[in-house]
Amino acid sequence: MSEYYPYCQRTRVWIADSEDVWKPAEITKDYKEGEPILHLRQEDETPLEYRIGPKDPLPFLRNPDILVGENDLTALSYLHEPAVLHNLKVRFLESNHIYTYCGIVLVAINPYEQLAIYGEEVINAYSGQNMGDMDPHIFAVAEEAYKQMARDERNQSIIVSGESGAGKTVSAKYAMRFFATVGGSAGNTNVEEKVLASSPIMEAIGNAKTTRNDNSSRFGKYIQIGFDRQYHIIGANMRTYLLEKSRVVFQAEDERNYHIFYQLCACASLPEFKDLALSSAEDFIYTSFGENIFIEGVNDAVDFEKTKEAFTLLGVKENMQSSIIKIIAAILHLGNVEICSERDGDSCHVLGEDRHLKHFCRLLGVELEQMEHWLCHRKLVTSSETYVKNMSCKQASNARDALAKHIYAHMFDWIVEHVNKALHTTAKQRSFIGVLDIYGFETFEINSFEQFCINYANEKLQQQFNSHVFKLEQEEYMKEQIPWTLIDFYDNQPCIDLIEAKLGILDLLDEECRVPKGTDENWCQKLYGKHSGSAHFQKPRMSNTSFIIIHFADKVEYQCEGFLEKNRDTVYEEQINILKASKFQMVADLFLEKKESSSSTPGSKTSRINVRSAKTVPKTPNKEHRKTVGHQFRSSLQLLMETLNATTPHYVRCIKPNDEKMSFVFDSKRAVQQLRACGVLETIRISAAGYPSRWTYQDFFNRYRVLMKRADMTNSDKKLVCRNLLATLIKDEDKFQFGKTKIFFRAGQVAYLEKLRADKFRSACIKIQKTVRGWLQRLRYRKIRRSAVLLQRYGRGYMARRYAEQLRLTRAAVICQKQCRMVRDRRAFLRVRRAVVTIQAYTRGMYTRRIFKEFLLHHKAMVIQKNVRGWLARKKFRRARDAAVTIQCAVRCMRAKRLTKQLKIDARSAQHLKKLNSGMENKIVQLQRKMDDQSKDLKTQNEQLLSHNNNLGSEVGKLQKELQQVRLRHGDGNQLTSLQEELARLRAELKESHDLNQRQEAEHGSEKLVLTQRVEELEKENHLLKSDKEQMNHKLLQHSKSTEDQESSASQRETDLQKDLDQERLRYQNLLKEFSRMEQRFDNLEEEVALTKRGHRRNPSNVSSLESDSNYPSISTSEVGDAEDAIQMVEDIGVEKAAMDISIFMKLQKRVRELELERKRLQAHIDKMEELAKSKVTERRNLTSQDEVADLAYNSLKRQELESENKKLKNDLNEMRRTVSDRVSDDSSSNELQESYKLLLTQLKAANEELDMRKEEVLLLRTKIVSGPQQNGLVDSEKVSSIEAEVNNKKPPKDKEEALKAYQEVSESKRVLEAQVQSLSRQHKDELEALHTQIEVLRGDLEKKTEALNHTMSLSPEAQVEYSVQQEITRLTNDNLDLKELVEKLEKNERKLKKQLRIYMKKIQELEVSPVTPVDSRSRPELSRQVTVQRREKDFEGMLEYCKEDEALLLKALIAEIRPSSVSATVPCLPAYILFMCIRHADYVNDDEKVESLLTSTINAIKKVLKKNVNDFEMVSFWLANTSRLLHCLKQYSGDEAFMTQNTGKQNEHCLKNFDLAEYRQVLSDLSIQIYQQLIKVAEGIMQPMIVSAMLESESIPSLSGVKPMGYRNRSSSMDHDGNGPSTYTLGALIRQLGQFHSVMGEHGLDPEIVSQVVRQLFHCINAFTLNNLLLRKDVCSWSTGMQLRYNISQMEEWLRANNLQQSKAAPTLEPIIQAAQLLQVKKKTSQDAEAICALCTALTMQQIVKILNLYTPLNEFEERVTVSFIRNIQSNLQERNDAPTLLVDTKHTFPVLFPYTPSALSLETLHIPASLGLGFLVRV
């Protein structure tokens, strides 16, 4: 093993390539050291002879496939440039992963495409996670910085670098978004929003389009985000570096100026910008140099609105925004000012009436003449005098451009300063995180001063980066206590010294700038002379105006032209003075502020890049004297480096994959250039120089235990086992080192170990294959042998069967011959027999038809005679009957008239009605008695008849015996006569039978004809019915299809409606959540105000906004009749004295109300009849008779009589009450009290009887009123018949008036009869519906019994017996419960009566014993009343009385100080029941103020308790149960029929009487939703740290997961490795936590439906966190993890089944993670596999499926990666899906909660209040 040489056959290597930089190849022949040729085979199978020499070393080795695509480049076994480039390329192109770790550096490749990996759910997924636990991401770096800031209490920095277009600004923006989300401000300061709002402002004024980037940052910035002690954002500060001012006046081809200019021009047409005189950007010189003013996909007008909104959010006022816009517009107009040269060429002038100059001066508020003059002139100041000198056209144009750059630079600095002011805070800053967005190393064809400064800054940053990497490596080695060897790394200090040291490039540049006539050429010559001997400085061969600096990344040639001018940054003082004199204050301050700030606060940190000294420099003529740009930049860079060195840096290197800005296109050449420039390869080289591969002992043991011996496996000391293994595998001890917790390997050693492991697996596979193949061959041999024996057996059997078949055929032939001959002879015989029978039949038929014809002639004659005689007789009878009917009609008409008059007279008297009623009753009694007598007579007669029959039977028997005796005596003499008589009788019978036979034959013949016809008709009908049946079947099929379509559409509509309902509920609950959040914020602000105001305390208030918002009207009750008088009387005599008869009084009052209602209803009926009568009177033209008037008078008289009786009854009641009160108030003896008590009972009894009589009388009157018209209808029917008879006889009535009256009566009777018929029909319909309902009920019972019977029959006999026994037990149990309820009701009634009797007796005794004094007589009943009320009302009222003063004490005992454990042994939701019983009493006494106060205070108290115990799951669950129970009680006892269907009779009696609390029910429902959301939040907060560890990391199935080599970013790398970190959770711990939640909710009596919804929400949380973590971690996307995950999910489902939660819809929420686990395990090769995956993963989106496939990682080389073509196939198959473009599951999603109405079966009167609650002040009522 120690002689292993890597360059052997089949080893893969990297060779250099001109196009792809590096390309793979494979060694075809073993290479021996010293050979000049290495034989290779390229990927296209072409051979290659690779030369090896001193200048051509051996090629780089390739890593194993298992290591390709790793998250961390340092995890690669071979660390070199081709391995890094290939790993980045594979991750970027195949897996679409743009982030990769390289040690401490995050490499970010710009995808040029918007990816859905930056949402808030991704931030939540990375928040709180360790850096090595998740896939590489900018959020992981930000979280690491945030965590280290909190843990180490050290400031942090994130350094984002890269060339233009690599994505630096976007990365920095996402890092700040992460801090704003995770470290949001504690109060309502919106600091995080302001920090994010600064980005669009800085992009507008500092970003521009370049050829490499559409949104390139043309300045560097360092943003410090400040945090307080709780690590919330409190403010921010920004420093900027080296703004590219030259872009204001010039842009290269296809580039743009800063975005703000184009944004303003895009909005120039708006009314508010009319005074700016702007137009399109093409019309201005400063915005049209690049010849392309648009950016594809960018709307400048929309971006300008965003910029304005950001200014507003940062507190920049409208007038300041307007001034900024005017300055920007003025710069554009300044660029269009045209300067013309004079003839002499040394002077120039501005064109007259130049409108752009006018606009410039107007917008900036400066003098037009002065600006026009000093644009073309300059001032020269000498020691003696001052000169004004003309400028040439070129000089003037340069001065104009310099002025524009100067104005823009000052405006830029002013905006940065105001942004810093907006982000500044007065709070104390504890720590900060800085984000540095700075330009990367740049090299172009022409490099000038800007590139020099940029590369200088990158040299400084690279030096800091190298030292930090070196320091980390040294710390790691020292921490693990391994020998430290100095690692040689590139030190760029000489290059930095060349630039910034004394007499360096910058010093020489500043010196040349101070020379009056210094030039770029002179400065260049000085550089040649001074630094030509430097190793990092070179002079170009073909140029004397440029120089070369050898940077750490590359050689760069700089052109000297323009260096001095850009370093001076000259602008003329005269022009600045004009601007200082502007009439606009902001413009003037723009140029005064710098000077003042530099002189007043020289040492303060400024947001600008200019760092000035404290000393004031004397002014020199013609120039604004300040430090040069180079000096300023060096100072600001030095300050930046000091800041970075004082923080812990985190590095993000942005890579630009191609220059064409194409999405997911990787240019290897460009990538290698940037990797070399940004220091990634230097990091790799430093890592490779030491021990790049690092394993913990446990991971190494798990990975390579296959190489160990069996004896080593049993050793518990893993370190010793690993040492022994490495001693046997690797002989060179320098190749590895043993640390305290890790093993360190040199480069290539992990690959060697992987090869040994693969060889071990390969040999094991060969052995397994050998054994399996032998076993398969043995199976095959046995199968062939069995097949041969089976074939032989079947062959022999076949031969034997053929021989037997031949014998059988021979015997069958003989039998066939015999049968054929027999059949032939029999057919001949039957033919002759049929011919004979046919002849006989025809002959007999002929004779029979002759006889029938003769009989038919005689029969027809008889029929004709019979019909004629009958017709004559009927004609005679009808004539006689008509005459008799006519006479009868006349007589009956006369009698009917008389009878009608008599009946009308009788109907007027009520006495007649009473007599009629009593007569009818007497008749009924008589008829009943008569029926009884007749039944008795019938019984006696039957008995007599039976005895008579018995006597007759006995006499007949005697006579028969005598007859036999007589026959015996006289038998011989009469024998002959008897024989003759018998002969005659037989002949007569023979003749009769013959005649009967003939008649039957005739009848049968006719019937036969009829039947044959009938058969034919039936056949036709059958044919028609068949066709109809087919048509109906066809229609039924069509109808069934249509109904199925309708059902499917209906089900779809139902699901849509359900979704809409869920969405509405969800929106409503989100609003409640937002309301609770705002309420919480309001409370926090109030607390802060209270804390700031020392010495002032807010008075406590129990009144919330609920009191002001809900205006509950006070309901005042007015009793019917004399209720008010009765209340006044009770108040007069005292409550105690009236307590004894209050129940009887209420019953009487109720009876009076019923009677009054009945009277009103009757009166309304009579009024309707009167109106009907009036209408009939008008219709009949006032022909109303006196009888009708009398009827109406009678009805009104009867009504008055009832009213008088009712008043009399009321007066009697009042007199009885007064009598009772007088009797009670008298101080008489006990006998008098007893007499008064008896008198009271008798009076009450009489009053009840009188009420019953009155009620019956009312009912009788109604029946008489209805039955009267019916009787009249009977009489009128007789009149109708008589009138019809008269009409038929054509005899007109003698009297016309009488005929008219008869007609009216007939019509009236007809209407009455119609009404009766309608009433009868309605009654019949009602009865029919009732019968149908009863039938349906019986049918349902029958179906249930049938199902039970079928179920019983389907069981086994033993199960049938057991089932029947269970059914019988259930039935007996139900009967027993019913009997118990009946017994309980009887016992309650008995107890009630006994208690009432005892109470009355005690009252009587107290009245006997009480003294005469009124004070004592009043005081004793009060004391006794409390006792008696408690004893009396305990069982049947269920109310609790309390004083208004005790309300605070009640809420304190029931809500504020109660603990769930204190009431755990009592009835669940006891506080809710007690509160409702108090509400019932307040409703009972009609106290609306008390009800409103109690409910409002209860809601506020619950909110305070929940706020105090915001993270206590038990307390939140307890109050959710009580709040929902109080809500259900308000519904159950509201009196609404919809909520009373399941109530008992007693519960219905307890309903609220006076108040409608529907609005409070809504408030309680909202509160329940808020508590539910808080409960979910608490539970998720407890479970969240457990989910990922339990579901993905814990080994539920031991030894299933494998371990892969890890890099610098080990799992949990940012954790404390000393063992003080958080412990891992197992699946059992998670399930136990769920069980604890479930048991707590069950103990507190939470409704099962709500418990199910809580479990469903928690399972959704488990699914979301597990799936999100799976989608963001490459190390868990493997086959073994899928197996572990499926097992864990099965355990979760088992927990659901064990707790009867299958119907909670919790299991379907796990469907996405189930499908993800299945996706990790299924086969992923062919197109059929792709289709199967698409059909399987319906709950996963396309992005999630593709992400899992990209992350899928084989744990050993025997597994295969998912190919790119397979993933593309999956994407094409899933294109039809309309999935949301989101990758992660929303962890904050909440299902809409529904609180179903669940009434309580508990009786309030049986509720027991434990004494431990301290509620002794409550009184049972």
UniProtKB/TrEMBL annotation:
This is Myosin VB. InterPro entries: Dilute_dom, IQ_motif_EF-hand-BS, Kinesin_motor_dom_sf, Myo5a/b_dom, Myosin_head_motor_dom-like, MYSc_Myo5, P-loop_NTPase, SH3_Myosin. Residues 1145-1175, 1199-1257, 1296-1410 form a coiled coil. One of its GO terms (cellular component) is myosin complex. It comes from Gadus morhua. The keyword Hydrolase does not apply. One of its GO terms (molecular function) is microfilament motor activity. Gene3D superfamilies: 1.10.10.820, 1.20.5.190, 1.20.58.530, 6.20.240.20, Kinesin motor domain, Myosin VI head, motor domain, U50 subdomain. Residues 637-659 are annotated as: Actin-binding. SMART domains: DIL, IQ, MYSc. Residues 1053-1062 have a biased composition (Basic and acidic residues). The gene is myo5b. Residues 8-57 form the Myosin N-terminal SH3-like domain. One of its GO terms (biological process) is actin filament organization. Residues 598-607 have a biased composition (Low complexity). Keywords: Actin-binding, ATP-binding, Calmodulin-binding, Coiled coil, Motor protein, Myosin, Nucleotide-binding, Phosphoprotein, Repeat. Residues 1496-1776 form the Dilute domain. Belongs to the TRAFAC class myosin-kinesin ATPase superfamily. Myosin family. Residues 1100-1119 have a biased composition (Polar residues). Residues 597-628, 1039-1062, 1093-1120 are annotated as: Disordered. Residues 68-758 form the Myosin motor domain. ATP binds at residues 162-169.
